[in-house]
Specification:
The chain is α+β, with helices and mostly antiparallel strands and 292 residues long. It has helices at residues 3-6, 49-59, 105-113, 116-122, 133-137, 146-152, 183-192, 212-215, 223-226, 262-271, 278-291, and strands spanning 7-12, 26-29, 34-35, 38-39, 45-47, 66-69, 77-79, 87-89, 93-98, 154-164, 179-182, 197-207, 245-250, 254-259. A hairpin with a 3-residue loop joins strand 13 (245-250) and strand 14 (254-259). 29% of the residues are buried.
């Protein structure tokens, strides 16, 4: 997929930068401040608030934006963090805003690192080489299907299982007992048994670096009896508090998903177009209950 399809905008910094002032809270950086996975604020050009606002309309730099040097030493790339001071850029740096439903800023940063030779070979110029924005926008980046890769990246604790359908090849029987399975095994299980209906089930995904003891330290929960009561209390939390994602199949009628990864959340919301945000839904439920 080309960068122009991955990002909501692809632009560069100011071509006619404002005259700097002695000192202020507003900075303009250039390619000399952008390194691989690092943004420095040494020797910036300071701007007035008015000049900064005018320059920032072009780039709209925000958390998760990817910066790519495109003049001089081309191909260095970094991601904007939330704790960075306000800054804008000169034209030597491109600003890419990746769409959250496609990939994260850090994924795009690492992907562009892999394209460093490609970018360098397309830079033109004698005194100072540069690559045009049009060429940047057309760089082809391989975007894997994030959901399968995410499933495979975790270890899964599965409990309270009740299924029906063509489940002859499932690696387990209907059971309330909890068991562990790798993400690769879970993905293969799902893809090989697409016609199976989950009536009940609690699937909690944990980072692989966590041991089972570290990942899960709660007592057994009978979700068929307790229902979704733990999800109704704010702040909402998964049954398995250390899970990165939790999927709760509720009596064949509804499925609840809690996920710490904003990118995965966005992809799921986009795919399941009729889905509702859980916190918003809880507010609606509570309002209806109070009205009754």
């Amino acid at each position: 997929m080309r960068i122009k399809g991955i990002c909501s905008s692809v632009t560069d910094g100011s071509h006619n930068p404002s005259q700097g002032i002695i000192n202020s809270d507003y900075m303009m950086l250039s390619s000399k401040n952008i390194f691989d996975d690092e943004i420095t604020f040494e020797e910036p050009r300071f701007l007035s608030e008015e000049d900064f606002e005018r320059e920032n309309r072009r780039t709209k730099i925000s958390e998760g934006a990817v910066l790519l040097t495109i003049v001089g030493t081309v191909g260095r790339t970094a991601v904007v963090d939330s704790n960075m001071p306000a800054f804008t850029l000169q034209r030597s740096v491109a600003v890419l805003h990746p769409r959250k439903d496609i990939c994260s800023g850090r994924f795009l940063m690492y992907a562009l690192r892999g394209k460093r030779s490609y970018i360098e070979n397309r830079a033109k110029g004698v005194a100072q080489k540069g690559i045009y924005l049009g060429e940047v926008a057309n760089i082809d980046i391989h975007i894997p299907d994030v959901i399968p890769e995410y499933i495979k990246s975790l270890n899964w604790r599965i409990s309270n299982v009740e299924c029906c359908g063509n489940g002859d090849n499932y690696p387990f029987e209907n059971t309330t007992e909890a068991f562990w399975i790798s993400g690769t095994e879970l993905y293969e299980m799902i893809t090989n048994n697409a016609n199976v209906q989950w009536i009940w089930g609690l699937l909690s995904g944990f980072r692989k670096e966590l041991s089972r003891e570290e990942a899960y330290d709660e007592e057994y929960v009978d979700i068929a009896s307790e229902g979704i009561q733990s999800y109704w209390n704010k702040p909402i939390a998964p049954y398995c508090k250390n899970a990165d994602i939790e999927i709760f199949a509720f009596d064949s009628s509804e499925t609840y998903v809690m996920c710490n990864d904003d990118n995965i959340y966005s992809v799921l919301r986009k795919h399941f177009k009729g889905s509702n945000d859980l916190e918003t839904q809880i507010d609606i439920w509570n309002q209806n209950t109070n009205c009754e």
